Amino acid sequence: MKSVRTGKGRKGASKKAVGRKDSDEPDSPMDEVDDDIAEEMPALRSVVKVFTTHSDPDFTLPWQKQPQYRSNGTGFVISGREPEEMFVLTNAHCVEHFTQVQLKRRGDDAKFTAKVLAIGWECDLALLEVEDKAFYEGDIEAVPFSKKLPRLEDPVMCAGYPVGGETMSVTSGVVSRVEVTEYTQCKTELLGIQIDAAINSGNSGGPALNQAGECVWG
User: Fold this and answer.
1) Are both 173 and 126 inside the same structural domain?
2) Same domain, 106 and 183
3) Same domain for 111 and 38
4) Are 46 and 117 in the same domain?
5) Is 124 in the active site?
6) Model confidence over 187-203: pLDDT tens digits?
7) Is 204 one of the annotated active-site residues of the chain?
8) Which of 54, 124, 154, 169 is catalytic?
9) Which one of the listed residues 46, 54, 93, 154 is annotated catalytic?
């Protein structure tokens, strides 16, 4: 969830889990690279791809909607108030005017239907829930939040699924600005953090992680 407010792209059409990768199938070299990166930063295993089908309202004909289109973005798993309770956090504009939202884990071909629990337009955040517990099985865990604001020139790592590929993209940079800024969705002035890491369409909703694997801002 970066300060760049882009991130609508494509989405798969299956309603539930569509089948996982065969465990007997040999891993590709890129899978090995992904595993090496995730081994160094376990929080990356909890970064997921968000597939959304949108249908914008027609304000001139409010009784009907515009044709549907698809987009993709990024989200990451966070913990809830109860033990073992987990949700997925993404950007509000990634699920704007949604008709269906699905999530896909790193290295898994299955897509899981997600429910949008809450949308905060002012802060451009959305909270998602997957009812199928199989989504949270394996090595996925909640990404912790940093309790301190980052300082200028602190190193950060951004993870997401930008357009142009199917595997996770990881870019690094430093914090270059921390100040109150105007958010695009509702013109609300809130705290914003600017970094110099490369961010592209589809990265929206992904976390910016510090060296401890904590989310400093999304």
Assistant:
1) no
2) no
3) yes
4) yes
5) yes
6) 888 888 888 888 888 89
7) yes
8) 124
9) 93
SS3 per residue for the chain:
CCCCCCCCCCCCCCCCCCCCCCCCCCCCHHHHHHHHHHHHCHHHHHEEEEEEEECCECCCCCCCECCCEEEEEEEEEEECCCCCCEEEEECHHHCCCEEEEEEECCCCCCCEEEEEEEEECCCCEEEEECCCHHHHCCCCCCCCECCCCCCCCCEEEEEECCCCCCCCEEEEEEEEEEEEEECCCCCCEEEEEEECCCCCCCCCCCCEECCCCCEEEC
CATH number for the domain including 132?
A: 2.40.10.10
Q: What is the domain count for the chain?
A: 2
Domain residues for the domain of 161 are 155-217
**The model scores a pTM over 0.85:** no
Instruction: Assess whether 36 carries a catalytic annotation.
Output: no
Q: pLDDT band for position 81 (50/70/90)?
A: confident
